[in-house]
Every structure is written in C-alpha cells, then in structure tokens.
C-alpha cells in the first residue's frame, strides 16, 4: 500500500473482513470480454460521428454517437437512462444518469462518474472508464446494495469539465456520500521508464499502478480502495495521493484534471481513479487512442476495483 498523506488526519475506518470479502467477491465477477466489447463499441460509434470542431480549443469533440451508443447499450442491459439536457451560453450539454436504487437507503447516493465525450476515438480516454462503469452497474443490479449507486456519464468534460459543472450545480440538494470518478483506466506497462511524472510530483518509473487521487474528505474511501486492491487476485498496485490542496502549484493542477475536481469544489468526498493519461499513454487525445493500445488485464483490474469499491461504499 503506497499512501502519500499530503493532508494527515486520523486513521480512517476500513471494511471489516466480511465486508471486504463481499466487495472483492462482487468485483471478481467482472467480465473481461465485456469490458473490451464496450471499448470497441464506443470507438466504432465515434467513427460514425462527424464531430464538432471547436475553434477555441483547436480540436474536434465527439459525443453525439457515443451518447446514443451508451443510451442504447444501457437500455438493453435493463436500465432506465435519464438524459439531462441544459442549453446555456449557446452550449447544449447532455449528461446521462442511471440509478441502481438502493435496497434500504435509496435516498443516499454513491456516484460513479465518467465522461463520454472524447477527442478522437477515445479508447482509453474515456472508453476504458465507461466499460468499467457498465460492468459495475451490471453486477450491482443483480444484488443492489443499501444505497443507490448512480452512474453519471458526463458530456463536455474535455471542455472545462462543463458537463460536470452543470450536473453538480443542479444536484446540490442530493445526499451524496461518495463520488468515484474514472478517467482513463486502461493503459499500463511493466517496462522500466514507461511512467512519466508531472513537474512537482515523484512517481514510480514503471506504469503498472492505478492512480487514486482524493480530497481529504475522501480519505476513508481511499483507504477502502487500498484494502480492496490488496485483497484482489492478483492485487492491483495503487498510488494514492490525498489532499491536493489549492491550484497554486504545477503538480496540483494535474490532480484537478477531470470531473472529480467539480465535486471537490462542491465539498463532496471524491476519488479520481486514473492511469495518469498522457503521463503514461503516447496516444492521449490522438486518432491512435484505439482499443489495441489498452492492457486488457489492467482494465479488468481497474473495473474490479471500481465495482468492489462502489459496492462497499454503498453498503458501509
Ligand atoms: Zn478524459
């Protein structure tokens, strides 16, 4: 367990042996083939997408076909997909929500979030995360935990996290107990020198770990994530960073680079799971972010952790 406690607080309460076993057992049921099928389905859908060229960003955003594909796939899995549409400042945002109603405390929410918009085919960024969320949802649906688990698939993350900004602004009265945001969770390598680090952070040299980044309020969730990752077969190496603080230094800027940053701004305990994207992947935001660049075993491990963590947090 590598935990760098940037903000040191009391020892968090973890899962007891029975709860840990139940969570790990649920995560172990992740279907590896289904994960890659989701990534490939999304990439194929985006290939049919004309995209939207954004002059001010100098890139093309692909979201319409991915939105349709996610809606159709989740509907076929038996879920009701709610599309939340807002049009402001000339920008239409369509976030997709799926609830797995809690068995005994349905008003309390655990959010699993990932963006579905992409710059290019987006196999790692962010098909990998969506694949993990779909598998978590499939498993949780079979035996719903106490709290409601809500998938939030955000639009326009690639542009100032606009989709998440509207989502959290419009859901401030929700009773959210935990947020787990995934952004790029499928690239890994065991080659020395395969991991780079942002200025101001020292990371291991080998890109074989999953990053777990949280605010101080998410310390307990980070602790539980580490318990689960160690108990999995095989274990998943994590690198945990807590308490990113303000935006005043170069390293902490990178820790804010996805939708969880908006959850932090609203005072919610949020974890960010990531393979570190461009600090590891050479195809980040390029036409080469394709399924064959993923490490299917690593993606499966990321998905097992995600499903187990959501289950544990929705039960605790
Ligand atoms: Zn992303």
Describe the structure.
By secondary structure, the protein is α/β, with parallel strands linked by helices. The chain has a single domain (2-315), classed as 3-Layer(aba) Sandwich (Aminopeptidase). Helix content is 36%, strand content 22%. It has 9 helices and 11 strands. The protein has helices spanning 17-27, 32-47, 64-76, 123-142, 162-170, 219-231, 250-255, 260-265, 296-315, and strands at 2-5, 52-54, 59-61, 82-88, 91-100, 105-115, 147-154, 175-182, 210-214, 238-242, 270-274. The strands form 2 sheets. The chain has a 9-stranded mixed β-sheet, sandwiched between helices. It has a two-stranded antiparallel ribbon with strand order 2-3. Helix 6 (219-231) links the parallel strand 9 and strand 10. The two termini are 21 Å apart. The relative contact order is 0.21. Zinc ion binds next to helix 4.
Topology:
Blueprint: E1 2-5, H1 17-27, H2 32-47, E2 52-54, E3 59-61, H3 64-76, E4 82-88, E5 91-100, E6 105-115, H4 123-142, E7 147-154, H5 162-170, E8 175-182, E9 210-214, H6 219-231, E10 238-242, H7 250-255, H8 260-265, E11 270-274, H9 296-315
Parallel strand pairs: 1-10, 6-7, 6-8, 8-11, 9-10
Antiparallel strand pairs: 2-3, 4-5, 5-7, 9-11
This protein binds zinc ion.
């Amino acid at each position: 367990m590598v935990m760098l406690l940037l903000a040191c607080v009391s020892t968090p309460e973890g899962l007891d042996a029975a709860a840990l076993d139940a969570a790990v057992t649920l995560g172990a049921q992740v279907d590896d083939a289904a994960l890659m099928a989701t990534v490939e389905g999304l990439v194929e859908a985006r290939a049919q997408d004309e995209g939207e060229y954004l002059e001010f960003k100098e890139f093309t955003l692909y979201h319409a076909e991915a939105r349709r594909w996610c809606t159709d796939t989740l509907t076929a899995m038996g879920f009701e997909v709610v599309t939340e549409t807002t049009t402001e400042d000339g920008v239409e945002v369509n976030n997709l929500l799926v609830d797995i109603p809690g068995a005994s405390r349905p008003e309390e929410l655990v959010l699993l979030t990932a963006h579905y918009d992409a710059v290019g085919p987006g196999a790692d960024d962010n098909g990998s995360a969506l694949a993990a969320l779909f598998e978590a949802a499939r498993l949780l649906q079979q035996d719903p935990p106490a709290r409601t688990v809500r998938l939030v698939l955000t639009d326009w993350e690639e542009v100032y996290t606009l989709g998440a900004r509207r989502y959290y602004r419009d859901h401030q009265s929700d009773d959210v107990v935990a947020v787990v945001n995934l952004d790029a969770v499928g690239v890994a390598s065991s080659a020395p020198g395969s991991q780079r680090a942002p200025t101001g952070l020292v990371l291991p040299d080998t890109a074989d770990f999953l990053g777990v980044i949280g605010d101080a309020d998410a310390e307990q969730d980070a602790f539980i994530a580490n318990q689960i990752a160690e108990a999995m077969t095989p274990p998943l190496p994590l690198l945990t960073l807590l308490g990113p603080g303000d935006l005043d230094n170069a390293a902490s800027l990178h820790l804010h680079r996805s939708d969880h940053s908006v959850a932090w701004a609203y005072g919610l305990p949020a974890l960010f799971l990531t393979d570190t994207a461009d600090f590891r992947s050479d195809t980040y935001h390029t036409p080469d972010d394709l399924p064959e660049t993923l490490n299917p075993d690593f993606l499966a491990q990321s998905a097992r952790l995600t499903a187990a963590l959501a289950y544990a947090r929705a039960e605790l």
